Amino acid sequence: DGILATDIFVDDGGMLQRVTPKKDVLRSMAVDGGSYAYPADMNGDGIMEVAVAELLPGVLTDSRTYSALRWYAVDSDGRCEAKLVTYQNFDENWYFEFPEFWDGTMLVREEDVSSVVSAVQFYRILDQGKRPGVTDLADEDQAELVLTIYTLRGENRQSYAEEHELSILYSDSEISYAAALNGAARPWEGTITLAQVSERFRMLRTKTN
């Protein structure tokens, strides 16, 4: 049914103790193709977080649905504390941590630019009255492009990045990831730099059933 049930244990004075969270975070939604967001230490604090998928608002010209993942830490009393929100691209094996002011204000659109280039676009919702309905990206009063993250393949990926003035986030012998900010976007609390994008972009460790 696209659902993964998770048991949570905590180290309570050297003893493993099974915990029942006070929030319903024991069931995590499969995001795509049998890939799940398994518990992980997402923020490097030594504590495992558990992900809950939250649907993002829709795009008028896109029939796909997209989810952000909200990661919770669970203590020995079952209390849940939200730690961060991410967008996971399981197909391309990366994730991006949302800045604080992006939470609840963004939508996502994925597209194949060519056979060797794919893109994930992050839009800021301007007309908050439309949430959680469908947003028309062609209407400049409803949404504004903020960030695009590209996956580049093929022998010409470096020249593509240079031609389109993309900032490389990660590259190896087979694949590159790059980012571009919309320089015409209006300033707001969630405005970020390419350096901050690089800090929040990470490769994904996945386990597929």
Which helices and strands appear, and what pairs or packs with what?
Elements: E1 3-5, E2 8-12, E3 15-19, E4 27-29, E5 49-55, E6 58-59, E7 67-74, E8 80-89, E9 94-97, E10 106-112, E11 117-125, E12 134-135, E13 143-153, H1 157-163, E14 167-171, E15 175-181, H2 194-200, E16 201-203
Parallel strand pairs: 6-12
Antiparallel strand pairs: 1-4, 2-3, 5-7, 7-8, 8-9, 9-16, 10-11, 11-13, 13-15, 14-15
Descriptive notes:
This protein has 209 residues and is mainly beta. It has two helices and 16 strands. It has helices spanning 157-163, 194-200, and strands spanning 3-5, 8-12, 15-19, 27-29, 49-55, 58-59, 67-74, 80-89, 94-97, 106-112, 117-125, 134-135, 143-153, 167-171, 175-181, 201-203. A hairpin with a 4-residue loop joins strand 10 (106-112) and strand 11. The radius of gyration is 18 Å and the shape is globular.
What's this, in brief?
The protein is mainly β and 209 residues long. It is built from 2 helices and 16 strands.
Low-confidence stretches: 29-33
Shape from CA axes?
Answer: globular
* Share of β-strand residues: 35-45%
Order of helices and strands: EEEEEEEEEEEEEHEEHE
Cα-based radius of gyration, to the nearest Å? 18 Å
Keyword list:
209 residues; mainly beta; five-stranded antiparallel beta sheet
